[in-house]
Amino acid sequence: MGLFAEVYTGIADKANAKFAQAGLSDVDFETLIRLARSPQRSLRMSDLAAQTSLSTSGITRVVDRLERDGLVVREACATDRRASYAVITDAGLARLQQVLPGHLDDIELWFTGLLSPEQLSQFLETLRTIRDVVRPCATAGVTQRVDAAQG
């Protein structure tokens, strides 16, 4: 676990410096990237909290900040008045586009580029196996929005 923590911390420190240059924290980036890759570029707030391992109040604070910056908006759920969705805006996508090229270069330099294709494939498969046991909610809400599909 110590080796795993050292690797994660080393990569995260390098990534966080790039995020800060774009005015984002690591949690901001994670929130935006999860929204951008989700159906309709949105997730229920509860699913977003589950995916990021933040509490409901924690993700609310992150979304509040991103909303103030114009990077995310909230939309009410048409089928459940208790629920709402966080939706990435065009400005949020533009901010991601500002950060992603450098981030992907860093991932290649400090992670994927250090492994052969076979090593990387096996490593990612192993990580998914472990993730699915220790964080089964990590992919919560990846199905299409019910109210968006209706109209």
TrEMBL record:
Q: Which residues form a coiled coil?
A: none
Which SUPFAM superfamilies does this UniProt record tie to the protein? Winged helix' DNA-binding domain
Q: Where are the transmembrane segments?
A: none
Name of a matching Pfam family: MarR_2
A biological process (GO) annotation for this entry? Answer: response to stress
Q: Which InterPro entries match?
A: HTH_MarR-typ, MarR/SlyA-like, WH-like_DNA-bd_sf, WH_DNA-bd_sf
Source taxon at top rank? Bacteria
User: GO molecular function of the protein, one example?
Assistant: DNA-binding transcription factor activity
Q: Which residues form the HTH marR-type domain?
A: 1-132
PROSITE patterns annotated for this entry?
HTH_MARR_2
PANTHER family registered for this protein in UniProt: MARR FAMILY REGULATORY PROTEIN, TRANSCRIPTIONAL REGULATOR, MARR FAMILY
Return the protein name: MarR family transcriptional regulator
Recorded source organism is Acrocarpospora phusangensis
Q: What is the lineage of its organism?
A: Bacteria, Bacillati, Actinomycetota, Actinomycetes, Streptosporangiales
